[in-house]
Specification:
Oligomer: heterodimer
Strand content of chain B: 5-15%
Helix content of chain B: 25-40%
CATH class of chain B: Alpha Beta
Distance between the termini of chain A: 53 Å
CATH architecture of the largest domain in chain A: 2-Layer Sandwich
Mean pLDDT of chain B: 95
Mean pLDDT of chain A: 97
Low-confidence stretches of chain B: none
Number of helices of chain B: 8
Low-confidence stretches of chain A: none
CATH class of the largest domain in chain A: Alpha Beta
Number of strands of chain B: 7
Largest interface: A-B, 84 and 63 residues
CATH topology of chain B: Aconitase, domain 4
Radius of gyration of chain A: 21 Å
Helix content of chain A: 25-40%
Strand order of the largest sheet of chain B: 4-3-2-1-5-6-7
Distance between the termini of chain B: 40 Å
Number of strands of chain A: 19
Strand content of chain A: 15-25%
Number of helices of chain A: 16
Chain lengths: 472, 217
């Protein structure tokens, strides 16, 4: 019999019951909750007179709607100017109080983006099944966990039953061999993967990231990669456990206590795909060939190395794709054949669950150090992913480097990644963004998003247009 | 949940690939704490020419007359014809809520994004997969004939065009059962409470740290 993949092992360890129709009941260890996708779930429980199966498996925090300016944040929930946002954040507080759920409230020093605080607090651990009503939950897969996004009905289902009805996915291995070149980061790797396999390339699969590039990559980098698994269509992305995983977890708030640590570590070290495991599909990419990436269109698969030209519709033979390119160029205000380095940027956003961890802030500060944001850039903002990231960055003096260069230093939250708060693009503005989606209107009505790494975003801020960070 | 048995309804086009959930229901409208009322903002940025606000009365907003859902001939449509990878992007259940609230009962496409596909079934909205060729044929026939109505029969698993041509589709048995009967997943799972508790007892021995409480410190 063939060995098991990491996903097979995680699935088997959480199987409560196989059902006759091929679906299964899977036990959920950890549930992370935020204000946008939970109110209707709590309401559903209340209407049905149901209780939480295990309140102490849940950690909540507001992130999507919270303001990121110090002035608006200073007064807590009551200071949120947008009344609709304020009600949503207040509703999360009320629901957590009523149901006995631990919540890091808006001005708690541990508040932050759900997918940043999960690993950071140790609430999310290797070997766990982790869900959250947010598609970027796969971020936690970097720990060697099975983590994925769910809808609000499933949020309610997990709250009431601690289980999910699921069908086992197929196994996909993305192997990136070799060594990354200088100036090439985790973000470039995942953008290159999406460019290669497309936004539906991983649909129906659990995606494991293997190969030397991921072994060499930091935990933060692995989180960036797993975060964007959904942008390649896969609900779950994951990386096998190794020394880096164990070292990362040790000492975190909710990490196993002394009496369980050895047992946990021994178990976690088994969380790797067996040598003879069989994957349904394997994609191999040469890590050494990956260049810094910039997305040019309105889907994350519309991405290219920085030193290339935007594609021309007439070069595409498939009519649906050709129309897609035409529509994207029109929305983005670009011409086929135009050099990516000739695209000017109006705003720069460094943040989001993809790229707001300490390493990302260091990467941006490293580029910004001793330089100035171009006068042609209207705004360049850095939004740390959590209160802890912010505190660490300030301890290292990174905020000083960034503000001296002309970047704004903000309070933690999702911010301009999806622009549910006041941080958004104006109509027609181009943004160098370290977020995960370049969909039409994502960062603001009529806004034009270009997905890049933190280093490339900082470089674009300095130059006023996209530029190869390696040549800066 | 409302059940889905047979729907005979007017078809309308969403003729582009990779329609994402931001397009289906833009984030401005996710601030609601309710499940209903999203229909008027379905495809908001395509339907209207201005930027929409939550809780706004949409009756006086400028309409994008080039967007097919605004055409007179597609008013009252219950079936949405779409292209590959429909519903990609976020996990927001507001996407199926908006489609349902608008009046759609079924989306027909060659493929769907996983989370959207899953979410639809929880809301009595049928995401129905037909091959690229058949979807292409339906698009062509729909464009050529005004008032193009399709019959979707879930128990027979067939899609029938106005000419009487029928296509069969695949669907997971359990999902079909729940949709036909409008069954609530939670109630069904809670019937297995003993199995869940048995699992927990075992797991408390093999991975005890998983059951350490999340506590406020």
């Amino acid at each position: 019999m063939a060995g098991k993949t990491l996903y097979d092992k995680l699935w088997d360890a959480h199987l409560v019951q196989n059902r006759d129709d091929g679906s299964a009941l899977i036990y959920i260890d950890r549930h992370i909750v935020h204000e946008v996708t939970s109110p209707q779930a709590f309401e559903g429980l209340r209407l049905a007179g149901r209780e939480l199966w295990r309140a102490d498996s849940i950690l909540a925090t507001p992130d999507h709607n919270v303001p990121t300016t110090q002035s608006e944040r200073a007064q807590g929930v009551s200071g949120i100017e947008d009344s609709v946002s304020r009600i949503q954040v207040q509703t999360l507080d009320d629901n957590c109080d009523e149901f006995g759920v631990v919540e890091y409230k808006i001005n708690d020093s541990r508040q932050g983006i759900v997918h940043v605080i999960g690993p950071e607090s140790g609430a999310c651990l290797p070997g766990m099944t982790i869900v959250c009503g947010d598609s970027h939950t796969a971020t936690n897969g970097a720990l060697g966990a099975l983590a994925h996004g769910i809808g609000t009905s499933e949020v309610e289902h997990v709250m009431a039953t601690q289980c999910l009805v699921a069908k086992k996915m197929k196994n996909l291995l993305i192997r990136v061999d070799g060594e990354l070149g200088q100036g090439v980061t985790a973000k470039d790797v995942v953008l290159a993967i999406i460019g290669e396999i497309g936004t539906a390339g991983g649909t129906g699969f659990a995606m494991e990231f293997g190969g030397q590039v991921f072994r060499d990559m930091s935990m933060e980098g692995r989180m960036t990669v797993c975060n964007m698994a959904i942008e390649a269509g896969a609900r779950a992305g994951m990386v096998a456990v190794d020394d880096k995983t164990i070292d990362y977890v040790r000492g975190r708030d909710f990490a196993p206590k002394q009496e369980h640590w050895d047992q946990a570590e021994t178990y976690w070290r088994t969380l790797v795909s067996d040598d003879d495991a069989e994957f349904d599909k394997v994609v191999v990419i040469d890590g050494g060939a990956i260049q810094p990436q910039v997305s040019w269109g309105t889907s994350p698969e519309m991405v290219l190395p920085v030193n290339s030209a935007v594609p021309s519709p007439e070069d595409e033979s498939d009519p649906v794709k050709r129309t897609g390119i035409e529509r994207a160029l029109d929305y983005m205000g670009l011409k086929g054949g135009q050099n990516i380095t000739d695209i000017h940027v109006d705003r720069v956003f460094i943040g989001s669950c993809t790229n707001s961890r300490i390493e990302d802030i260091r990467e941006a500060a490293n580029v910004a150090k001793g330089r100035k944001v171009s006068a042609s850039v209207k705004q360049a903002m850095v939004v740390p992913g959590s209160g802890q990231v912010k505190a660490q960055a300030e301890k290292e003096g990174l905020h000083t480097i960034l503000t001296e260069a002309g970047f704004e230093w903000r309070e933690p939250g999702c911010s301009m990644c999806l622009a549910m708060n006041a941080d958004k693009l104006g109509n027609g503005e181009h943004c160098a963004s370290t977020s995960n989606r370049n969909f039409e209107g994502r960062q603001g009505y009529g806004g034009r998003t270009h997905l890049v790494s933190p280093a490339m975003a900082a470089a674009a801020a300095i130059a006023g247009h996209f530029t190869d960070v390696r040549e800066l | 949940m409302k059940s889905f048995t047979t729907v005979n309804g007017l078809a309308a086009p969403m003729d582009r690939a990779n329609v994402d959930t931001d397009m289906i229901i833009p984030k401005n409208f996710l601030k609601s704490i309710k499940r209903s009322g999203f229909g008027k903002n379905l495809f908001d940025e395509l339907r209207y020419l201005d930027e929409g606000l939550p809780d706004q009365d949409c009756s006086g907003r400028p309409i994008n007359t080039e967007f097919p859902l605004n055409f007179e001939r597609y008013q009252g449509a219950q079936i949405l014809l779409a292209r590959e990878n429909f519903g990609c992007g976020s996990s927001r259940e507001h996407a199926p809520w908006a489609l349902d609230d608008y009046g759609f009962r079924c989306v027909i496409a060659p493929s769907f994004a996983d989370i959207f596909y899953n979410n639809s079934f929880k809301n009595g909205l049928l995401p129905l997969i037909l091959s690229d060729e058949i979807v292409d044929q339906l698009f062509k026939e729909m464009y050529e004939s005004e008032g193009y109505s399709i019959t979707v029969d879930l128990s027979e698993q067939t899609v029938t065009t106005p000419s009487g041509e029928a296509f069969s589709f695949e669907i997971d048995e359990f999902r079909k059962h729940c949709l036909l009967n409008g069954l609530d997943d939670i109630g069904l799972t809670l019937q297995q409470a003993e199995a869940i508790k048995t699992y927990e007892e075992k797991a408390k021995v093999s991975t005890p740290w998983v059951f350490d409480m999340i506590k406020s410190v």
